[in-house]
Automatic annotation (TrEMBL):
InterPro entries: RNA_pol_sigma-70-like, RNA_pol_sigma-70_dom, RNA_pol_sigma70_r2, RNA_pol_sigma70_r4_t2, RNA_pol_sigma_r2, RNA_pol_sigma_r3/r4-like, WH-like_DNA-bd_sf. GO terms for biological process: DNA-templated transcription initiation. GO terms for molecular function: DNA binding; sigma factor activity. This is RNA polymerase subunit sigma-24.
Length: 175
């Protein structure tokens, strides 16, 4: 890995932090995960193939490190409670913003895993379709179709939620 590539790693740290935060749910755990990821990337720099996506390579290391930590915790007999991974909605956020984020998270959780991963990688983590394809180890067309399906499903789910809220407001105003 050239010195230039080492410098480029720094450009990817904010996206790695967002991805780590989404996985772990807390800023402290996310920072630890990013640090472990960067240490592994530096120690395994000879494994990086020039001409491939550095971003996808770093995100793959981050994800694999996270999965390894979860598995290690399970083998040691620690129960991993996904609900206790932290307050994903942050401290000091206003109530409305937290509620909107929880609603968005609930809607995203209803998507199939592969579609959810594709839409989050291309939107939240701001990966190109090509980088997401390399990260997910699938063809770029597969990522595009998963993102398209996810967007259609999300529009439908959001429409249903808005309709329920409208009916609920109408009923409470009528009583």
């Amino acid at each position: 890995m050239s010195g230039q590539v080492m410098n480029e790693i720094e450009d990817h740290v904010p996206a790695l932090r967002r991805h780590a935060y989404r996985l772990t749910g807390t800023q402290d755990r996310a920072n630890d995960l990013v640090q472990d990821t960067l240490l592994k990337a530096i120690s395994k720099q000879d494994k990086f193939e020039e001409g491939t996506s550095l971003k996808a390579w770093l995100h793959r290391i981050l994800f694999n490190t996270f999965i390894s930590e979860v598995r290690r915790a399970k083998t040691r007999g620690h129960h991993v409670d996904w609900d206790d991974l932290g307050d994903v909605y942050g401290h000091g956020s206003n109530q409305m913003a937290r509620l909107q984020l929880r609603d968005a998270d609930r809607v995203l959780e209803e998507l199939p895993e592969q579609e959810r991963q594709a839409i989050l990688l291309t939107t939240v983590d701001e990966m190109s379709y090509q980088d997401a394809a390399e990260f997910m180890n699938v063809e770029i067309g597969t990522v595009k179709s998963r993102v398209g399906r996810a967007r259609r499903k999300l529009r439908g789910m959001v429409g249903q939620i808005e309709a329920r809220e409208h009916v609920s407001r109408f009923v409470s105003e009528a009583s």
